[in-house]
Specification:
heterotrimer; B: about 250 residues; alpha+beta; Fumarate Reductase Iron-sulfur Protein, Chain B, domain 2; 3 domains; five-stranded mixed sheet; 11 helices; C: about 300 residues; alpha/beta; Glutathione S-transferase Yfyf (Class Pi), Chain A, domain 2; Rossmann fold; 2 domains; four-stranded parallel sheet; 13 helices; about 10% strand; globular
Chain lengths: ~130, ~250, ~300
């Protein structure tokens, strides 16, 4: 039996929010999968970038429980290749921001091991705190 | 200078309203201020600290030295018709008509515990104890908040560059009032970071002053023992006289 | 000597000091004086991607105001280009500049928020040192070479921030050649490989070093398979991930052979005959000296 996906007003609200925060029109995505084929992090991800886009199109908020959006390194490999001109990095950023703005940090900066703090350059700390703390 | 004297007289006059409970009819100038939202009519020449006391607030703790040095009486206020949130020390800032104000008794901040003699002299020491330093967005809110007019953002940035001399120079006059920290959107505790920076700089970079070395030797040899012994045995009156007649370095 | 405002970025003052000094000294050989921006602050890396997050664009724009000030107080004369070395700083500064130029509302808001500064006028142009070299002419670079990097097989690594997104990229995002052109003019043998533009994992290095070390393994072994003796980069974060994370690569892959990672400017300094004085090879995790000695370049 084919399962029908019901899109509630809650789902639409979520889609609108991500569109607004990212400045992208997520519904334009054709699900071609070029993004997933370009992503250097794909082997670590639980859902692919194109699945992430599909979930946002359907307004499924559980997309924010995925590892994928946190694994995005904003490398823009997908961005330069998307045939629809979409910037997935902005969509992933919007999803992260929704979480971070609920005051839920993705990393605990006090728990970085001391031997790593002594090795990591400023550029690594600054950029990761920008992306993973609110 | 004449006007300055006049102002000092007015302040002294107004201050009497608190210290000796002088008749309010003697006070000519009045303003209305809003303390935590409620309006009070107070003598115009009071400071925020004394105005709050006039209005009935009691500062048993958290008001500090009352001389503008200790940084305990941080305050935030807005002037009438202004959108800017201003900061200052309550004991040093005079009330103005229509001012909205409150005194902030303390800025919650964790102060790291470290032994500088065991730390390596490089940038990592900042991230080890205050990793949130890397969250600075250069918004400059800290500089705007500083009642000492320090370039706070510049010294935070100096820390981010591992520039110990820069953080020392730029933060030297910090009174650790905490107003930078309470306004910081990145939740950085600027003044503790600066203190760590100054200590590291002093320990590892600043040359040992020769005159200090010399004086320490003199103390150890007992050069001042006799003089000290005399002072210890003076009575209060003699001590006061000695203090009043002391030799002062020029200001 | 042409004088240009130069933005170092925080890491070039510490662990990537070898990048900065080799660049400044090599630039002098080409009659370019890089003058450090007074009172610069963190570039605000990485560029914030949401539509409403203006606070993160204050940092880069504040730095662009410093370029105006340099012109105002005569440190440089009518020079509105700002030279960057770090790829991430380049990307962040350039994108922020573009964003305010394209969004008058954002432009005004950011200027209003920084009311203690003079208003940014939008005239600064952010460029990368590689672009400057290209404009100066690789022929001119070649003329200055005293010690050609003969027999040195180098795989240039570009990473992301110099190339993407398209509107700020300094070269073709799919097949960049600018570093190859430079290295060839220095006399090196350039090794091309498809991993030259694949992300090193960037800031993921903080939360999961092994995610990054796997990418490092892929990037480096591909270059090695094509015959490269060393890699070049222009980003201190790529350098950290490709160089220092070789420690983690070695933990997971016993067969892995370590390979030196240079900043491209270090090879410029060597080729220009400046010796290792301005290279600070002690800051490179994998010591590149044995390779250079083997090729008679030291």
């Amino acid at each position: 039996m084919i399962k029908k996906i019901v899109i509630s007003s809650e789902n639409v609200k979520f889609l609108d929010k991500i569109n607004e925060l990212s400045g992208e029109t997520v519904t334009l995505c054709d699900q071609c999968g070029v993004c997933s084929g370009s992503c250097p992090m794909i082997s670590e991800m639980d859902i692919t970038p194109s699945q992430m886009m599909r979930k946002v199109q359907l307004g499924q908020m559980d997309v924010m429980d995925s590892k994928a959006m946190w694994l995005c390194a904003s490398c823009f490999a997908c961005t330069v290749r998307c045939p629809r001109g979409l910037d997935l990095s902005k969509v992933a950023e919007a999803l992260r921001q929704v979480k971070l703005r609920q005051a839920i940090d993705h990393i605990d900066i006090k728990k970085i091991p001391e031997n790593e703090i002594n090795r990591l350059p400023q550029i690594a700390l600054i950029s990761s705190f920008r992306k993973f703390t609110g | 200078m004449k006007e300055g004297k006049n102002i000092m007289d007015r302040i002294a006059e107004a201050s009497k309203s608190i210290t000796t409970g002088v008749d309010e009819k003697d006070i000519k100038n009045w303003v209305t201020i809003y303390i935590m939202g409620r309006g009070y009519r107070v003598p115009a020449d009071l400071t925020i600290l004394t105005a709050m006391e006039y209005a009935g607030y009691k500062f048993i703790r958290g008001c500090g030295c009352r001389q503008g040095f200790c940084g305990a009486c941080s305050t935030v206020y807005r002037r009438k018709g202004e959108y800017k949130l201003e900061t200052g020390m309550a004991c040093q800032t005079r009330v103005e008509d229509g001012m909205y104000l409150v005194q902030i008794p303390f800025t919650p901040a964790e102060k790291a515990i470290y032994d500088i003699s065991k730390e390596e002299y490089n940038i990592n020491v900042f991230f080890k104890y205050y990793p949130e330093l890397a969250r600075c967005v250069s918004c400059n809110t800290c500089t705007k908040a500083c009642p000492q007019d320090l370039e706070v953002m510049d010294y935070v940035q100096a820390a981010l560059k591992g520039d110990f001399e820069g953080i020392t120079e730029d933060s030297f006059d910090c009174i650790q009032c905490g107003l930078c920290a309470i306004r910081c959107p990145a939740e950085i505790v600027q003044y503790h970071i600066a203190q760590l920076g100054r200590r590291m700089y002093g320990r590892y970079d600043n040359p040992e002053p020769e005159h200090l070395e010399k004086r320490l030797k003199e103390i150890k040899k007992g050069k001042f023992d006799k003089e000290m012994d005399e002072i210890i045995h003076l009575n209060r009156k003699e001590l006061e006289k000695l203090y009043a007649e002391r030799k002062r370095e020029p200001d | 000597m042409i004088k240009l405002p130069y933005y170092p970025g925080c890491t070039l003052k510490t662990s990537a000091k070898n990048f900065e000094i080799s660049a400044i000294e090599s630039a002098k050989i080409l009659d370019i004086e890089l003058i450090e921006l007074p009172r610069w602050n963190c570039c605000g890396t990485v560029f914030s991607l949401t539509s409403d997050d203006l606070i993160h664009h204050i940092a880069p724009i504040r730095n662009l105001i410093r370029v105006q000030e340099m012109n105002g107080n005569g440190i440089v004369k009518d020079e509105h280009r700002l030279v960057t070395l770090c790829s991430m700083c380049y990307n962040t500064l350039k994108r922020a500049n573009l964003r305010v130029k394209e969004n008058p509302d954002d432009f005004k808001k950011i200027n209003d928020l920084m009311y203690l500064e003079e208003d940014y006028n939008g005239n600064v142009e952010v460029i990368h040192f590689l672009e400057l070299l290209k404009k100066t002419g690789f022929e001119k670079v070649k003329e200055k070479v005293k010690k050609p990097l003969k027999n040195l097989k180098i795989a240039p690594y570009y990473g992301c921030m110099l190339l993407r997104p398209k509107e700020v990229g300094i070269d073709d995002p799919e097949d960049p050649t600018i570093q190859a052109e430079l290295l060839e003019s220095l006399g090196a043998e350039v090794i091309d490989n498809p991993y030259k533009k694949v992300c090193c994992g960037s800031y993921q290095t903080v939360q999961d070093k092994y995610v990054v070390s796997e990418l490092t393994y892929d990037i480096l072994t591909h270059a090695q398979r094509e015959g490269a003796f060393a890699i070049t980069t222009s980003c201190p974060l790529c350098a950290f991930n490709l160089d220092n994370r070789q420690k983690e690569v070695k933990e997971k892959h016993q067969d892995f052979k370590q390979i030196p990672v240079f900043y491209f400017t270090q090879l410029m300094a060597i080729a220009f005959g400046l010796g290792e004085k301005y290279c600070s090879f002690d800051l490179n995790y994998i010591n590149p000296r044995p390779l250079l000695i083997d090729k008679k370049l030291l």
